[in-house]
Amino acid sequence: MVRPAAGLISLTRATRPPGERLAIACFGIRGVGSAYYLAHAFGAAAFEHQDRLWAVLGFTILVSIILHGATVTPAMRWLDGRRRLRGRR
Prior knowledge:
By secondary structure, the protein is mainly alpha-helical. The chain has one domain (2-85). 75% of the residues lie in helices and 0% in strands. It is built from 4 helices and no strands.
């Protein structure tokens, strides 16, 4: 929830309609930053159960991919419908 909120805040002055800004904030790339920060943390300090932490991260990314994959098509269709109603293509 923090990432989409931060994305919305960063897009406050964008010229896109609110629905499109929400889509950009919610469907952006995920997981890459988390993997980077976890790898950096493991290089900087000793952690127990590193394999478990990688597994949790991998599972979280997998769930994110599945949820985004299931919701992106309906969201984009909704945005396309709104764009057509406004006469934009």
